[in-house]
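Recall that a protein's primary structure is simply its ordered list of amino acids. Everything else, from secondary elements to tertiary packing, is in principle encoded there. The following example makes that idea concrete.
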Amino acid sequence: MSVPVIVLSRELPPAMMQMLQSVAEVRINDANEKVLDNALIYCSTALDPVDAELINRFPHSMGLIANIGVGIDNIDLDTARS
């Protein structure tokens, strides 16, 4: 069975990183296009924009955009829905 891939917009506190790494391959988003390969979940913080440019780079395997924080103003919902 393959391990799910979670891509984070930035490094999270150590306890959160350890928990995520215990159930998935965790990658930090950077300019490297390969970081998104086979990702199932993109997890951002309220400080990091999830704009149309980023969403359009998501692979077809991406099934969830998660947000750590309050609100969803940082996510381009129209593009995410399409």
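The mean pLDDT is 93. The chain is about 20% helix and 20% strand.
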